[in-house]
Amino acid sequence: MRARLRLLATAAVLALTSTLLAAAPAPANPSAVAGPPGDRTATGRRAGNTEVPVEGGTARFDAPPTLLATLKDHGVAIADVDADGRISQHHYTGAGVSLDIEGGAVTNSGGKVGGELRFADTGLALLNSRTGKSVKISDFVGDLSQGTLRAGLDRGADVTLGTFTRPAANASVDTDAAMLRMNTSITVTAVAAAKLNAALGTKIFTTGGPLLHARIDARLDPSVDLRTALNLSGRPARREA
Questions:
Q1: SS3 29
Q2: Which of 188, 191, 185 is nearest to 166 (CA)?
Q3: What pLDDT sits at residue 16?
Q4: By CB distance 3.0 to 4.6 Å, which of 77, 104, 174, 228 could disulfide with 91?
Q5: What is the end-to-end Cα distance of the chain in Å, rounded?
Q6: Residue 73: helix, strand or coil by DSSP?
Q7: Who's near 66: CB < 8 A, 6+ residues apart?
Q8: What is the DSSP-derived secondary structure letter of residue 168?
C-alpha cells in the first residue's frame, strides 16, 4: 500500500512539473539572450565595427603637376561637367574639380578607414584640342575599404579609375569636429589608363602613374560616439598642411 502511495505521489509531481514547463513563455528573441559578463557577442555587434553615416562634406580632386604638364604638352585641357552632363565653356590646363559629398558611411576596417563615399553627379572633362576628342568623368564613388576611386566615363558603366593607400582610422577621424579628413594621392589603374588614352587619342596615361590628388572633408553623424563606434584612441585628426 505504501509503495503504491509513493508511486502516485511521484507521478503527481512529474505531471505538475511538465505542466509548468509547458506553460512557461519562450524568449521572444533567443539571439538576444545576454551572455556572460563582458561577452561582446551578447549584443550582436562588436565594438568598433559600427558604420557611421556620412552627412555631407566636400572633396577636391586635382591633377598632380607632372600630369598637368603632360596634359598641356599634348593639348589636353580640363573643364567642369555639370549634373546634366554639360561641359562648361571655360577650359583650363590646371586645377581640377570640387565635388560635394552626398552620403556614405565610414568604418574602422582593421585599423584603416573603411566604408564608402558617394559624390555629387558633377565631374570633369578632358578635351584634346589636337585630336578633337574628349571624355567626361563623373559619378565618383570612393570605396574606402578597397582603396579605390570609381567613376563613369561618358555616363557609361563604372570604371575603377585609380587606387590609393588607405589611411589609419585613428589618424583620419577628427572626433572633436566629427569629420573624416583625407589627403591622399590616387594612381591610375590599367583599365582606366587604356580607356582614357583611347577616348582622347593619346598615350598620356600609364598604369600606376599619377592621376589625382584628393583632399576630403566628410561630415560624420555628430550624434555618434565616434571613439566607441570606430574603436579609436589617441588625439583627434588634424588637417595636414
A1: coil
A2: 185
A3: 42
A4: 77
A5: 97
A6: helix
A7: 210
A8: B
Nearest in space to 178 (alpha carbons), one of 213, 221, 229, 125: 221
Provide CB contacts within 8 A for 194, sequence distance 6+: none
Where b means 16+ CB within 10 Å and e means fewer, 115-129 reads bbbebbbbbbbbbbe
pTM: 0.75
pLDDT at 91: 66
- Report strand pairing: 96-109 vs 210-220: unpaired
% helix / strand / coil in the chain, to the nearest 5?
25, 40, 35
How is residue 239 written as a grid cell? Answer: 588637417
User: Residue 166 has what DSSP assignment?
Assistant: P
Q: How many C-beta neighbours within 10 Å does residue 193 have?
A: 21
Residues contacting 97, CB < 8 A, separation 6+: 60, 61, 78, 80, 122, 123, 124
Give the number of other Cβ atoms within 10 Å of residue 210's Cβ.
19
pLDDT of residue 138: 93
Low-confidence ranges of the chain (pLDDT < 70): 1-49, 90-95, 234-241
Q: Quick one: which of 185, 202, 183 has its CA closest to 241?
A: 183
